[in-house]
Structure formats: structure tokens, C-alpha cells
Amino acid sequence: MTPPDPFTLHRLGPADDERLRRLNALFAWAFDDTESYLAQPPDGAWVRETLASPRVIALVAEQGSEVVGGLVAYELPKLERRRSEVYLYDLAVAETHRRQGIATRLIDRLRAIAREQGAWVVYVQADHGDDPAVALYTKLGVREDVMHFDLPLAP
Questions:
Q1: Strands laid side by side in the 119-124 sheet
Q2: 3-state helix, strand, coil in the chain (%, to 5)
Q3: What is the 8-class DSSP label of residue 96?
Q4: Cα–Cα dist 4/80, whole Å
Q5: CA-to-CA distance for 122 and 51, rounded, in angstroms?
Q6: Element spanning 123, H or E
Q7: Would you give the distance in Å from CA 24 to the centre of its chain?
Q8: Which among 62, 153, 56 has a CA at the least distance from the CA of 114?
Q9: CA-to-CA dists, residue 66 to 18, 81, 136, angstroms
Q10: pLDDT digit string (tens) for 88-115?
């Protein structure tokens, strides 16, 4: 008999405002970016509307009521063919819970959701120097070396 999982996975929906706040707190800590993730939290109406969209995929790994890992991804409809891609935007696991397969389980669940929704691929970026992320994504997929540019909006 296999022991029960020490954590559970949950896809966030419109009623998961508190889980989203805990996920954003994890992202703020993991990315050392409280300004982006905690300074101006969205109001409940925004959270409900955004999490109701099937094109927004937010997953958490929980141990009890503690969010120990999570990801946010976005399904992007394409126009060159009738298909979509899923962009894995944020992924983090609490430092105390790393090396337990949580990130891999989250990505596997994301890939299953992407397949169910008709996407043809999940893609993700990794920063130079983020060796754990690069190792994880290399294990799970095919590496492409590309450049990323942020294009500021005119004032």
C-alpha cells in the first residue's frame, strides 16, 4: 500500500481568493518581489472574474492549508491554426518543500489541463543563472535559446 501524498494539487477557481493570496505571497518570497506580488493586490471581483476564465490556469500544491507550491499559466489562442499554446508564467515551490517532486507534479497537471483544452504545447522561460529551473525544464522538455524583450508602453 502506497502512503498518501504529503500534498494535494488544486486548480484555483472563482471562489479561491484566499488561496490566490497565499500563492502570491509564495511568489513574492520565491522571486524576492513583494512590489509585484503583494503591494497592490487585486480586489475580489477581479480575482473571481480572472479565475473564472478557462484560459487562466492557476494551480497550488497544498500541505494542509499551507500553499507549498504553485504555478500560473495562460492559454493563448493562435491564429495561424485552430490551436492554442499555454505559457507557464510563474512557478515556485517553498524552499522547505523543494526536491520532493512538487514542481514536476504541478507541470504534469498543467500539461494534462492544456491537453484537455486542446493546446498543442506548454512553454516556459528561464533566466540565465537560474540553474534549478533550467535543470527542471531541461528534464521535462526541449530547450530553445531565445531572447526576451519587454516593450514599454508609451506614456
A1: 8-11, 56-63, 66-77, 84-93, 119-124
A2: 35, 25, 35
A3: G
A4: 44
A5: 19
A6: strand 119-124
A7: 11
A8: 56
A9: 11, 41, 23
A10: 999 999 999 998 899 999 999 999 999 9
**Residue that has been written with the C-alpha cell 531572447 in this structure:** 147
Distance CA 65, CA 68 (A): 9
* pTM for this prediction: 0.88
Which domains are delineated in the chain?
8-140 (3.40.630.30)
Q: Which residue has 488544486 as its cell numbers?
A: 10
**H-run or E-run covering 72:** strand 66-77
Q: What is the pLDDT of residues 22-51, one digit of tens each?
A: 999 999 999 999 999 999 999 999 999 999
Using an 8 Å Cβ cutoff, are 73 and 88 in contact?
yes
